[in-house]
Amino acid sequence: MTVSEMLLAYAPQIRLGFFLGILGVMAFWEAAMPRRPRSQPRWVRWLNNLGLVVLNTVLLRLLFPAAAVGTALYAETHGWGLFNQWALPAVPALILSVVILDLIVYLQHVMFHAVPALWRLHRVHHADLDFDTTTGLRFHPIEIVLSMLIKLAAVAALGAPAAGVLTFEVLLNATALFNHGNLRLPPGVDRILRWVVVTPDMHRVHHSVEGDETNSNFGFNLPWWDSLLGTYRDQPRAGHEGMPIGIHSVREPRAAVWLDGLLVGIPFRGGTPEYPINQRLKETTDGTA
């Protein structure tokens, strides 16, 4: 079996192994060093958030059986994409693939806040009433499918090597679990880590109910894009313990936590009153900001 065949065959097992291992570490870490008290029973939130993960995983396997790694191998075979034309050495191609794909995820995240129809879907992620490692896994199935289509197009256009794509997916999954963690890190450690990775305190600001705070700190993995592109906010106004989590229009646990609300209620009922970028622009135009 060639290296390419091995990557294609074992990529799901590699990702699942890292996912389960990191999820277990995060669950123990959150219990030992929580940053905020929980407002909802943990078992209810985890049951529904992880139920959504299972649904999304099955859907992706049915729609995209080869996934991003398979797309990378297909692009390599057919000479598609930038790196397959330049024939970069393996290590620089891998590193550049991880960095560029991370930038694309950042831009995609901004887009899901900037387009009202996409924000309806993305509200499922933001409506969680608590903020812990499972919040980083909580996305509507339609958003997951759209995100996969964007990723496949990016992988093909970039000509990213399969090893780089797998590395990126493992890192993104790991850092999403980490930076959504209900963790109390020493301030000095948090400051140092923010040079290389998005920390829980950095990303938690993005889950504030306040629109201007939600419209900041879009990074999931690398922290540089927010600073370079002007969307970085150091701390929330109310502090991490006092900052309300979620969105204004979904405060009832039955709507914000349970699976039927995540699939149907949040994305398809009501308008988009917490559409952060639009709200911020409206306030500025009206002279009320």
Tags for this model:
289 residues; 67% helix
CA-based gyration radius = 19 Å
Low-confidence stretches: 281-289
Strand content: under 5%
Number of helices: 16
Global structural class: mainly alpha
| String of helices and strands | HHHHHHHHHHHHHHHH
Question: How would you describe the shape?
Answer: globular
Q: What distance separates the N and C termini? A: 61 Å
Query: How much helical structure, as a percent, in the residues?
Result: 55-70%
Number of domains: 1
For the biggest sheet, the summary is: none
Mean pLDDT: 91
Count of individual beta strands: 0
Give a summary of the structure in a few sentences.
The protein has 289 residues and is mostly helical.
Strands, helices and their partners?
Elements: H1 3-32, H2 42-63, H3 67-78, H4 82-86, H5 90-114, H6 116-126, H7 141-158, H8 162-179, H9 187-193, H10 200-204, H11 211-214, H12 224-229, H13 239-242, H14 253-257, H15 259-268, H16 276-286
Helix pairs in contact: 1-8, 2-7, 3-7, 3-8, 5-6, 5-7, 5-8, 6-15
What does this structure look like?
GO terms for molecular function: oxidoreductase activity. InterPro entries: Fatty_acid_hydroxylase, Sterol_Desaturase_Related. This is Sterol desaturase family protein. The chain crosses the membrane at residues 6-29, 50-74, 86-107. The protein has one domain (3-286). It is an all-alpha fold. Helix content is 67%, strand content 0%. It has helices spanning 3-32, 42-63, 67-78, 82-86, 90-114, 116-126, 141-158, 162-179, 187-193, 200-204, 211-214, 224-229, 239-242, 253-257, 259-268, 276-286.
